[in-house]
Every structure is written in structure tokens, then in C-alpha cells.
Design goal:
By secondary structure, the chain is of the alpha/beta class. It is 46% helix and 22% strand. It has 5 helices and 7 strands, in the order E-H-E-H-E-E-E-H-E-H-E-H.
């Protein structure tokens, strides 16, 4: 599985990297991280990914802008954000799950397991 994290807070980014690596264990092929929308958008438009973990507030920029430009892409998105009031909007962009900050490993694992379940159904459905 190829995962991209877009998060501008170094502590949260390190936590996401560590926990996603643990949760996906032998299923993680590649993990790329970006702290801004421009670099993330360029990378995602040029590479095939399976999962995007996206913060909504990146240096004052709106993470939804990334989703607006990539709506036809074939990957799943999990929003990881303190802006819980934006959860309803997130689902309008086809987001699979919304994990509110501060989050627990169990909550992140629940969201990632949803992605794994969908991928399993797609592969063997």
C-alpha cells in the first residue's frame, strides 16, 4: 500500500508516520510525507497512491483545495484534522473517514481498516 501524509505539524506528522507504519506493518509499500499542498498535489498527480491522510489547515491553506483538484483520482482519503466542524463537508468530497485531532491509535486504525476492507473487496470482490 502506498500512503501519502499531508501534515504541517512536525509532531503530528511523526506520530502519523509511526502509527501508520505500525498499523499497516507488512502491507505498507511506501510512505511519503508533505507539509504543503503544492508539493503534495504535484506528487499525487504524478504517482499512483492508495491512501491520502490529509490535514485541512496547512500553513493557513485549505486542505479541501487539494481534494477539489484530485476528485477523479483512484485513492482513498482520510482527513486528520482538528476542524471537526468540517466533517460533513469532507464527506461531500468522497472522503472515506474523518479522524478528529487529538486522535488515538485505535481511532486511526479503525479508519485505515475501512480502507483495507474496501481494497480487499475490490481485489477479490
Amino acid at each position: 500500500m502506498h500512503v501519502v501524509i499531508v501534515e504541517d505539524e512536525p509532531f503530528i506528522l511523526a506520530r502519523l508516520q509511526r502509527q501508520i507504519s505500525q498499523i499497516l506493518a507488512g502491507k505498507l509499500d511506501k510512505l511519503d510525507c508533505f507539509d504543503n499542498l503544492d508539493d503534495a498535489q504535484e506528487y499525487i498527480s504524478e504517482h499512483s497512491i492508495d491512501l491520502l491522510c490529509l490535514d485541512l489547515n496547512l500553513h493557513g491553506e485549505d486542505g479541501f483545495e487539494l481534494l477539489k483538484t484530485l476528485t477523479a483520482a483512484s485513492f482513498h482519503t482520510i482527513i486528520v484534522s482538528a476542524n471537526a466542524d468540517e466533517a460533513i463537508n469532507a464527506f461531500q468530497y468522497g472522503v472515506l473517514d474523518f479522524v478528529a485531532k487529538p486522535f488515538t491509535k485505535a481511532r486511526l486504525e479503525q479508519a485505515i481498516n475501512r480502507v483495507l476492507d474496501i481494497k480487499l473487496r475490490q481485489d477479490y470482490g
